[in-house]
Fold each of these.
Amino acid sequence: MTRVSPRPTPPVSILPGPDSVLHLTEVTVRRSPATLLDAVHWNVEVDQRWVILGPNGAGKTTLLQIAAGLMFPTSGRVHILGERLGAVDVAELRPRIGLSSAALAGRVPPHERVLDVVVSAGYGVVGRWREAYDELDFARGRELLDAMGVAALADRTYGTLSEGERKRTLAARALMADPELLLLDEPAAGLDLGGREDLLARLTRLAVDPSAPTTVLVTHHVEEIPPAFSHVLLLRGGRVVAAGPLADTLTADALSETFGMTLALERRGERYFAFAAN
Ligand SMILES: Nc1ncnc2c1ncn2[C@@H]1O[C@H](COP(=O)(O)OP(=O)(O)OP(=O)(O)O)[C@@H](O)[C@H]1O
């Protein structure tokens, strides 16, 4: 295969525009001696559906933590939902962001009822205690569990769920507070083939819903990109290899550079498949 450099990433303006939901300029995260993110520029606009794709250790989760306002960069500027990170009370910002991540999954008490895992997002807490919920909250929680295909599990305890069922529960929870920004870290990891395809269909339905939040999804696999997602950011070693509209940006060359091996990429409709090219 002839290797050519991936398409250059269009420059990101210094300041966020009126439709900017996430705006990162020169964002670097260092944890001595490692550089987790290296001068990342990224702009996400309202109604866009982004996939962050990269190998293990690329910095995907770190980038999502920044986007969620859970981590501050060592240097660089971050705007989330129009607010400058560092100049805004993140406690006010976080309820506007729905996040499903492995870190959150590990904090849910095993004895917690599944429906309570979902509704407690309304208060931004993990583990229900004495907060007051009304019937509308529970109805909304059941509706979201249904949208994620796990309505039948509402009264089970979280600790008894399979990994795939937990992922779906946390995706429902991430939507509970009607976030303006939805961040999903590897939602399809651990799902079997049928479960993955079912979840992708549900995420596609969400992606085409004009009332759904701006969404960013992290994955290692091009096969897990839901149809109707619009943009991709390719990350390797904390650096952006390419970022932009999916159809133009996700190429075999860009993917090969991202994963450090020569890869072939096939597209069937809006689905992608990648494998080692010999
Ligand atoms: N506190 C830390 N100190 C040093 N290195 C760290 C720290 N936290 C993360 N790292 C390293 O930063 C790199 C990026 O981590 P991150 O979790 O963001 O990657 P990722 O792309 O999400 O990886 P994966 O796909 O394996 O989940 C990894 O090599 C990780 O070991």
Amino acid sequence: MSNKAPGVRIGGLTVVYKTPAGELPAVRDVSLTLEPGSITGIVGESGSGKSTLALSLLNAVQPPGRIAAGTVEIDGLGDVAALSGEQLRKARGKHIGYVFQAAQNSLNPLKTVGKQLLDLGRSHGVDDLRGLVREAKELLARMGLDGARVLDSHQHELSGGMRQRVGIMLALVLNAHLVVLDEPTTALDMITQANILKIVREVHAERGLTTLVITHDIGVVAEVADRLAVMYGGRIVEQGPTTEVLGAPRHPYTRGLIKAIPRLVGDISEAQALPGRPPTLATVPQQGCVFRERCALRMDVCETEDPQAVADGSRTVACHAVTVKEHA
Ligand SMILES: Nc1ncnc2c1ncn2[C@@H]1O[C@H](COP(=O)(O)OP(=O)(O)OP(=O)(O)O)[C@@H](O)[C@H]1O
């Protein structure tokens, strides 16, 4: 893999989990391109399939899950959906930096952070381990932490927010050029969150990364992402440049998400929670539009036909009602 920011092309990706009711898709026929050097945000409520999609970038979906169809082409690595165990192990960390959701729990409780950092370096053939430690301390210092102290600490000695930042450091420290951050700021207060997102943007630009940020918080995406993909029930329902999607959302789900956030609406009294609850694997419709149960624009066709993503310039939206209206 070259030192340049890689492009990523996800094509027709379906990921299923084995359940008592059979194998059910958590991600269904998803296509998404991460442009080299861009920050892409994937946003959606809990259970929409964001983490499963992100794990597919590392081919790290664990049983009872599996990639059932599709490709994940990463420049310099090829189709990671087809890579073997050893090739994948090498790619993780060195080429693809990853902060798992709830980074709090991904640290080893028995080892200090510093020991885990050295293990990570050794397992990826880093010769200059002193340099690695220096780099880790610098990253931690940028995120407002005392690097030496953190590296000497065990997980239980760190707060949730500190662990979150350690997770971000571990994702960046090997100098991967594709970085995936799954809920990077959930354990943080608003000020620390804004500070971390600023650092994510700075490091992204300095190092020339391709970055994917997964979050349920559309406000996080608004702050950090160039492009935005909205997921619901395992499908991407709308995507495009963040400013355009947030400025003029087309899909009724995107509109609902935006209306629910006081920060984006601008007036707390005008924020309205999205009615209803997101579907689970067992309840997500296997036919027709996945969002129809909660949709004010629902039409008969939504019961039977899955809306396909329709492109308009750099944006796509998958909604029968929007397509009918815009082509009327
Ligand atoms: N190991 C598993 N076994 C069975 N079902 C699973 C498993 N992991 C995830 N799922 C289901 O797959 C769907 C998508 O989950 P996923 O974690 O990808 O969504 P998400 O959007 O990241 O949500 P969250 O933010 O809550 O993690 C959910 O319905 C979830 O219950």
